[in-house]
Structure formats: structure tokens, C-alpha cells
Amino acid sequence: MRRNRLASLLLSLTLLLAACGSNESASSGEIEAKDLVVALTGDPVSLDPHNATDTISSLINYQVLDTLVAFNEKMEIVPRLAESWTVSEDGKTWTFKLRQGVTFHDGTPFNAEAVKISFERVANKEKKLSRRALVGQFIDHITTNNDTEVVFHLNTPQGPFLNNLAVTASGILSPKSIQENEQGIAKNPVGTGPFIFKQWTPGDALVLEANPQYWGGKPGVKSVTFKPVPENAARVIMLETGEADVIEKVPASEIDQLKSKDDLTVISRATNRVLYVGINTTKAPLDQIKVRQALNYAIDRETLVNKLYEGRVKMATAAVAAQTFGYSDVGAYPYDFEKAKQLLKEAGVKEGTKLRLILAANVIQDRPAAEFVQNNLQKAGLDVELKILELGAYLEALKDPNSYDLFVRGASANTGDADSVLSDGLLSTNATNYSHYANPEADKLIKAGAAQIKPEDRQKSYSEALKLIKEEAPWISLHEDVGYVGVRKNVEGVELQPTYIWDLRKAIKK
Question: pTM of the prediction?
Fold first, then answer.
């Protein structure tokens, strides 16, 4: 009897200890951390942050790399790898005090020298990195005072400098990765971020693992697997069946259906992306302002916004979105079919004039707008061929002005500042000005907006620039985007930014 009681007592004690151990594991997050599966519209183009221009590459790199400063959910600048900073009165010298005790994923210590090496790479003209225009071209030289203080000496004042440092293109890479395998960065980025790059099989999956040593706290999920799924219906089915936990770019036709399901939800966020049709101003007859204005008058934007997109987007009233610093409401071109026809006639444009319009296949949400523009321009008497190209082929085509007349693109103010749109897409000296728009007065105003320090001066310059751009019409601005992300309800903490970037640092899968 005594022996039975003793056995029972020991059994109870064993079960109690096991329960305590289980609770401790759960509270520490070990049991709760699960794998997160995300379905995207395609693969990244390159994981080299200093040489990538597509949103998917930036979204993935955001989880792997840290920047000196970052945007919070309100697009306000907050510290990240830099704890504090100061700027000289002339706006040309920026000093950053760095966070201590941070380590890159390869074990290399993060310090001022690492920052210096990363940005000297961006600034090196010989490397021909696509993101040099953002920050690198303005760097004269960089110095370090000690391991925890780095100083940027600019060749000209830069009003949007902090904003430009907050985007993934300014991500800090491990100096070891730069020095030992620079070409390999595109397929294996090494940063200090919350997730560590694990593997990438193009066309199948890209896997990141949680960084247990992350200075900001261990992520709430064990890993993130990004799957390229271009087809809208396939992504929706993956979300419904649980094969994916999160999907990007929910098609408008599926939003209400997904919201009605008990285990699913759709998160929306107004973005600072303006969808536009760029006009190749080097090609006749598009080299005439009158013709470009005619194309703008020929587009029925009201119908596009309210019927085609069911009012889920907002009409663009400038080349930059309303929530971007530097925005000014210069007004959309009204739909005036007769005026469009008259202007084309005055410019000597013949009926049936052929135009080639190109679109990237991965921007699925933009295809209806591209087809709508094609249809509207054809009604105006133009013969428009819409060519849908894979992203890589599309980007290559943009480099050859002889391969297109019109192109569909998003003007995304990833920095939250008009400079990132106007300098990138409309400054005559920039390689990504695919409209090849060249106006000395526009250049002067765009450069002034970037170089001025006082916000009110910058705003005035950008307002004048936007008026001029509307008048000369190198773009057909269509609508401001709203981003829709499908999420299973057992997933929390996916933070959407207006730049189409998601922050997965606080994501939890229950």
C-alpha cells in the first residue's frame, strides 16, 4: 500500500515537472515559433541591395539586412543600427552614433568600419551599381571617429538624406561578404537583420531562418519561406487551403470573398505608388508635347478608377502620391476624347499610327490598367500593341529606347520623399529616366528640391516641378495604389508599409 502511494507520488511529481518544463518552453517561444509560408507574385531579381530595383527583392532583403535608420508604421524616421545622429548647419556632414554589440550573420562584428565599407561600395562609380544614384553619388568621403561613430561627408546638401538611408537599398552588408565574394551577394546577402538567408531555388522557394542572436529580439517565427506564384487564383487557393499563410496582391475580385471566411482576412494599406504610363519622348510623334497631352486627354480615368478597379484605388493628381513629402495637387487630365483627337490632328499624327506598350508580367494588378489604356488610345485612332514581358526581359527592354514607345510602371516613393520618384524617373541625367524626358528647368527644380534643407523650400520646388511635368506630359499618371495582402487569422504582426515592404520582425503564427 505504502509502495503504491509512493509510486503514485513519484508519477505525479514526474508529470508536474514535465508540465513545468513544457510551460517554460512555451513561454520562451521555442514551441510557439513556427514556419511561415509567403506566396509572392514572382522571384526576386537580385538580393544585392545596392543593385536591386524591384519590390520583391527589397521585401526579402528587408528581413535580412538592417539600415542605419528606418521608417516606423507612420513612415517617420526612427533609429535602427544608428542610435542617434547630428547634421552640420550646411547640411553636408552627418555623424551617426552606432549601436554596440551587433554582429553580422557570418560572425563579423558590426562597427563604423563596416558601415564605411558598405557605403564606399555604393559610392564607387566604377562598380556601376543601380542604387548609386540614391545615396552614393552624393558621398564625397566617409570617416570613422572610432568603432561606434561614422561620419558622412557629402559633396552637396541633401534634404532627403535620412529618408534615403532608411530604405533597403542602403542596407548594411557584411564587409567580409564584400571583400571575399562580392559577386555572390546577389544570391546570398549577409546582414545583421532578424532573419538569416538560408537557400534559394529560383522558381521554387527562398528560405530565411530566424536569427536567434538578433539585437532587436528573436523573431516570432522559426523561418520564412517565400514562394513565387504568379497566378492570382493559385495564390488565393494556397491561402484558403493553408498551403500559404500570407499572400501578396490579392485581386480586387477576391477581397470580399476572402474577408467573409472565418479563418482569413485581408489587410489593406494606401501606398505611395502612382501607376503611370511612361512616354518615350525621343520617338516621333511622342517627342511633341501636344501629342503627349493628347494621350493624357484620351484616358478615361474616372471609369478606370471607379469601374475597372471598383473604387479600390484613388485617382492620381500628380506624378507622386498624396502621402509623399513634396506632393502637390496639380490635378489630373480630364477625359476629353474630342480634344485628344483634335490635338493629334494638329500634330499631324495619322490614324493607325503604331505604338508599342510594354508591361512587366509580375505586376498582375497593373494589367487591367494597361489593357484599358490600350483600348482608350485605340479609340483615339492609334494602333497600340501591348507586349507583356517577364520582369527580366522588361527591365532589359527599358534599357533600349528603340524597343518601346510606351511603358507601364509604378512610381514608388520608397523613401517617402518626392525626390525618389522625380530624380529616379524624370531627371534628365538619370539612367532610370525611361521616358528620356529632358528639360533644364525641370532638372533645376528637382535638384533644388533635393539640395534644399528647409522643408518649406523643398515643397515649393517640388510643387513647381510637378506643374511643369504635368504640362509637358512625359507620363500618363493613372492612379494611386492600395496594397492588399491576404493573411490567415492565426498569423499576427505582419506590418505593411506604404512602400509595399512588409516588416516580419513581429510576425507570429499561432
Answer: 0.81
